[in-house]
Amino acid sequence: MELLKIFPHLNAGLNALSGMFLLFGIVFILRKKVAVHRLCMLSASSISAVFLVSYVTHHIIRTSIFGLGPTRFTGEGLARPVYFTILTSHTVLAAAVAPFILITLWRALKGRFDAHRRLARLVYPIWLYVSLTGVAVYLMLYHFFPAQP
Q1: Which of 18, 55, 58, 111 could form a disulfide with 47 if both were Cys (CB 3.0 to 4.6 A apart)?
Q2: DSSP string, 65-125
Q3: CA dihedral 1, 17, 115, 34 (to 10 degrees)
Q4: Helices 113-139 & 34-60, crossing angle to 10 degrees?
Q5: Is the confidence at residue 16, as pLDDT, over 80?
Q6: CB contact at 8 A, 74 and 83
């Protein structure tokens, strides 16, 4: 059961780290530092992949092994619609953007930079939003409005 408690913190850290690499990546490409941009974006992609594995593992362990449901949000008043709006947009956009991240990455790795750039301009802000709202959901669920033991 102690292992289960690590996952939310790990996942939030991975989201934050991915978001950091995304921010550095955009700064470097705007400064025409292509090699460092590439490293940042590959790092963000790799960290996001590790996050996805960790997230799925957490939910499999939580539901299948311990028979627990989702963590309940305990906030009240205005916090509830704010939290659920952030959570819903985060979840929908995370699922929608994932294949486009892969296509954008593939185009860059294949040297199709014009096509990469066109798609990246749409994908990048959504990916960054997903990373940042993942951290916001974590903070609201585990720090601002934690469930009472």
Answers
A1: 18
A2: IS---PPPP---TTHHHHHHHHHHHHHHHHHHHHHHHHHHHHHHHTT-HHHHHHHHHHHHH
A3: -150
A4: 40
A5: yes
A6: no
* Tokens 């951290």, residue located: 135
Residue 77, classified by CB atoms within 10 Å of its CB into exposed (0-12), middle (13-18) or buried (19+), is exposed
CB count, 10 Å around CB of 32? 7
Do 78 and 145 contact (CB within 8 A), yes or no? no
Q: What is the pTM of this model?
A: 0.94
Letter for the amino acid at 57?
A: T
Count Cβ atoms below 10 Å from residue 18 Cβ, excluding itself. Answer: 26
Structure tokens belonging to residue 110: 């294949």
Sign of the alpha-carbon torsion through 6, 21, 108, 92: positive
Query: 149 pLDDT exceeds 70?
Result: no
C-alpha span between 84 and 50 (Å, rounded): 25
Q: How many residues does the chain have?
A: 149
